Automatic annotation (TrEMBL):
It comes from the Bacteria. One of its GO terms (biological process) is lipopolysaccharide core region biosynthetic process. This is Putative Lipopolysaccharide heptosyltransferase II. One of its GO terms (molecular function) is ADP-heptose-lipopolysaccharide heptosyltransferase activity. Its EC number is 2.4.-.-. PANTHER family: ADP-HEPTOSE--LPS HEPTOSYLTRANSFERASE 2, TETRAACYLDISACCHARIDE 4'-KINASE-RELATED. Coiled coil: none annotated. Keywords: Glycosyltransferase, Transferase. InterPro entries: Glyco_trans_9 (IPR002201), LPS_LOS_Heptosyltrfase (IPR051199). One of its GO terms (cellular component) is cytosol. It is an enzyme of class 2 (transferase). Gene3D superfamilies: Glycogen Phosphorylase B.
Length: 342
């Protein structure tokens, strides 16, 4: 097996996909312990990647073609001997080639003509592999041994301190157990109704499972406000209050996460927090919360999974709207929960 010394890891987005790539990185590091690894990532996700164990250097890319091309001279100067493209798109594969990396590995079935830029092609045996397992195929092609998937964050103490301060400012008291709730998703077709989230959140509080803490990005505050307006119980709200890099520390404090199919779902699973996830147009076989101890809620309709951002079903979004609150609560109540943390 060839020993690589300087590896460029290309996985620029998005949040969940980056988390899916973590076990592949850990496996490559085990197979090539003497190598240094640079990770090419979009600037908006850099805060998370800098907390991934095994990343020696970040290459932060700005939006647009100009932003990508501006990195080429510096990447060429760094003289990588291997590029691992897990994004599998024209832009990511072209960056590997333009950066002068002599060996470039990616999937044989990658999109947009990206395999033309690879020197090694990794076949995917069947389409319903989980993304984590699919990415691990590349690590195995590079000599990684069979090993359980490892999600390794290096969370600095200051992250825990910052999260603790934010929780207290939101009204949390030391020792109070809470369930994190993420009510949004990038695709409108992935969003369980706000009224359902409100009713479920009330049940979580009323039945003594814990307090409810809303999380999300700044552009998701409106949806959280709608849910809170429909609730009867008290809730905590950190939506838009913390940067993405603090998600591992925050979700590591939660007893569990209730969520749509979204990036925070994968961060929670990676830090060992149980997840109850609503799935509609996407497949939990391919992108569900990874590992044991999670619950996935779906309502079967013939067109699901459609992998579409628009719904053409005769009953709009029946795959999600027909997931009842009572059924969701049963799943939430059945999940293991972390012990109380102060």
């Amino acid at each position: 097996m060839k020993a690589y010394q300087h590896i460029l890891f290309i996985k620029p987005s998005s949040l969940g996909d980056i988390v899916h790539a973590m076990p592949a990185l850990a496996a490559v590091r085990r197979a090539h312990p003497g190598a240094t690894v640079g990770w090419l990532v979009k600037r908006q996700w850099a805060g998370l990647v800098e907390r991934i164990d095994g990343v020696d250097h970040l290459w932060e890319v700005e939006p647009g073609v100009k932003g990508w091309l501006s990195l080429v001279p510096a990447l060429r100067a760094d003289r990588f001997d291997l590029a691992i493209d897990l994004q599998g798109l024209f832009r990511s594969a072209a960056m590997a080639r333009l950066s002068g990396v002599p060996e470039r590995i990616g999937f044989a079935n990658a999109r947009e003509g990206s395999p033309w830029f690879y020197t090694r092609h990794v076949p995917v045996p069947h389409p319903n592999m989980h993304a984590v397992d699919r990415y691990l195929l590349v690590a195995k092609a590079l000599g990684a041994d069979e090993h359980p998937a490892e999600f390794k964050f290096r969370i600095p103490h200051r992250d825990h301190e910052t999260v603790d301060r934010a929780l207290k400012q939101a009204g949390w008291t030391a020792g109070e157990r809470f369930v994190a709730v993420n009510v949004s998703a990038r695709w409108p077709t992935k969003r369980w109704p706000v009224a359902s989230f409100a009713a479920l959140s009330d049940l979580i509080v009323q039945r003594g499972i814990g307090s409810v803490l809303f999380i999300g990005g700044p552009n998701e505050r409106a949806e959280v406000a709608q849910v809170k307006a429909l609730m009867k119980a008290r809730s905590l709200d950190l939506c838009g209050a913390l940067p993405v890099g603090l998600l591992p520390a925050l979700l590591g404090r939660a007893d569990l996460l209730v969520t749509n199919d979204s990036g925070p779902m994968h961060v929670a699973a990676a830090v060992g927090t149980p997840v109850a996830a609503m799935f509609g147009p996407t497949s939990p076989l391919c992108t569900g919360p990874y590992g044991a101890g999670h619950g996935v809620l779906m309502h079967p309709v013939p067109c699901s999974p459609c992998f579409s951002r628009t719904c053409s079903n005769s009953k709009h979004l029946a795959c999600l709207t027909d997931i009842t609150v009572d059924r969701a609560f049963s799943v939430v109540a059945s999940l293991p929960r972390r012990s109380a943390q102060s």
